[in-house]
Design brief:
Layout lengths: L12 E8 L4 E8 L1 E8 L3 H5 L7 E2 L16 E8 L4 E7 L6 H15 L8 E5 L5 E2 L6 H6 L5 H20 L2 E11 L5 E2 L2 H4 L4 H4 L9 E9 L4 E8 L16 H14 L11 E5 L6 E2 L4 E4 L21 E4 L5 H21 L3 E2 L5 E5 L7 E3 L5 E3 L7 H5 E2 L2 E2 L27
Parallel strand pairs: 6-7, 12-13
Antiparallel strand pairs: 1-2, 2-18, 3-5, 3-9, 4-8, 5-6, 9-11, 9-17, 10-14, 11-12, 15-16, 19-20, 21-22
Helix pairs in contact: 2-4, 7-8
The structure holds 2-acetamido-2-deoxy-beta-D-glucopyranose (6 copies).
One 2-acetamido-2-deoxy-beta-D-glucopyranose binds next to loops.
GO molecular function: metal ion binding; N-acylsphingosine amidohydrolase activity
Catalytic activity: an N-acylsphing-4-enine + H2O = sphing-4-enine + a fatty acid
InterPro entries: Ceramidase_alk (IPR006823), NEUT/ALK_ceramidase_N (IPR031329)
Length: 426
Amino acid sequence: KRMWVVQRSSIKHVLCLVVKCVLTKLWFIFVFVFFNSNRSEIKLTVLINVDALLYLQMGYANPQQKAAGIHTRLYSRAFIIDDGNRTVVFVTADIGMVSQRLRLEVLRALKEKYGNLYRQDNVVLSGTHTHCGLAGYFQYTLFMITSNGYIKSSIQPLVNGIVKSIDIAHSNKRPGRIYRNKGELDDSSINRSPHSYLNNPEDERNRYKWNTDKQVLVLKFTDLDGDGIGMISWFAVHAVSMNYTNRMVSSDNMGYASYLLEKDKNHGALPGQGSFVAGFSSSNLGDVTPNTRGPHCVNSGLPCDYLNSSCPVGGTKECKAFGPGEDMFDSTKIIGHSIYMKAKELYANAVEEVTGPIHAAHQWVNMTDVTVQINETHTVSTCKPALGHSFAAGTTDGGGDLNFTQGDSTAPDFRVSAGNTPSSYL
Ligand SMILES: *[C@@H]1O[C@H](CO)[C@@H](O)[C@H](O)[C@H]1NC(C)=O
Ligand SMILES: *[C@@H]1O[C@H](CO)[C@@H](O)[C@H](O)[C@H]1NC(C)=O
Ligand SMILES: *[C@@H]1O[C@H](CO)[C@@H](O)[C@H](O)[C@H]1NC(C)=O
Ligand SMILES: *[C@@H]1O[C@H](CO)[C@@H](O)[C@H](O)[C@H]1NC(C)=O
Ligand SMILES: *[C@@H]1O[C@H](CO)[C@@H](O)[C@H](O)[C@H]1NC(C)=O
Ligand SMILES: *[C@@H]1O[C@H](CO)[C@@H](O)[C@H](O)[C@H]1NC(C)=O
């Protein structure tokens, strides 16, 4: 039963984490004996050689944001963890998020190559949430509208890049160990709806020091000699240092952090070429912005209204959050650099070994049919998908187009749900 007894007897590593996907819910706990990591570039030649007007960027839902040129390349980074009995694949790709269509296409390609080895229940795909990757890889109406449709030449490079990164990882598997470390990074993110956060119960808020999660979690992968071969880290911040006026394809702050750590560890290698793979993965970043100078009115330079994130002249459209840097390129570098520095420090000092058997699980949730307990006596039920005011209002990283205002729940013509949750989609 204890498979590592077979040959890789000395290695028993565990790792527990919870991953929540946009469309599916996945929980898994894993342990490993062999693993390996690798990355592969999502080739963008298609994107830049074809009529750029066709391709929008995924994230801001901004029809003006037509892809034109490259700021930084996009990569897919794959980690395979295997305890000799079970295997889990974790991929973090420099894209907005993983659509269900993309996931199905990747699984289909994996099935063709590997049969039943990599499946629905043991392949986890995650996007870094850059808002400057290409769009067009969703099959849901809302995303099709804001992406100019479902575009085959847009999804294909993503499928190819992700599968290629898994292929490389698969063919490079070797025995190793995993170590875990965590710490706090408190100057690289702020809550973009601090007022909405106050709607959370006080006893819950009292449990936390901040109104966003500042924890950086690092998994360090080494070979049996203790030489580092890879890292995955999680930090909750939106990859929106590149703002909604940007038209260049970019992996944003998270991609820049990967670039820096890989450059560090792969002495002299060109980007994307060395053997050390550093994945900076998205986590509970819903209402967390890297634009740490906060929202200001573009026309006056004054802070926006605290409650409704709008400006006296121009309303919500004039209220924008700005980063720590002089411009968005500078902000991307500053935020990416500080996430990299923290992860590097945690990586260097990681000593807590992860051990135990690996486990993976997958569950579909019918979001139309979930019962939620709202207090001791009452439960409510979810309904069919709807967009709320908070969605239409957008955020201070990119306002909505329909003149909805944050905090407003009174426009009856548009009322579809009366939630006062912060807008977290954009
Ligand atoms: C090996 O994996 C199978 C299913 O994948 C599981 O049922 C079994 O318990 C595992 N064995 C050990 C020792 O973990
Ligand atoms: C936002 O709130 C301020 C008061 O805090 C109010 O004067 C203003 O009209 C509001 N703006 C919108 C667009 O609702
Ligand atoms: C976006 O970034 C550009 C370049 O750094 C800057 O000129 C512009 O003011 C920014 N716009 C917003 C709304 O943040
Ligand atoms: C999800 O739940 C709704 C409401 O109960 C039901 O109408 C629908 O058929 C369910 N969908 C699936 C795929 O089970
Ligand atoms: C529970 O929620 C219901 C529906 O909102 C409300 O009518 C009821 O007063 C609440 N009960 C308690 C104890 O807060
Ligand atoms: C948006 O709303 C503001 C106040 O709520 C109003 O002054 C403005 O005219 C509206 N703009 C448009 C384009 O409807």
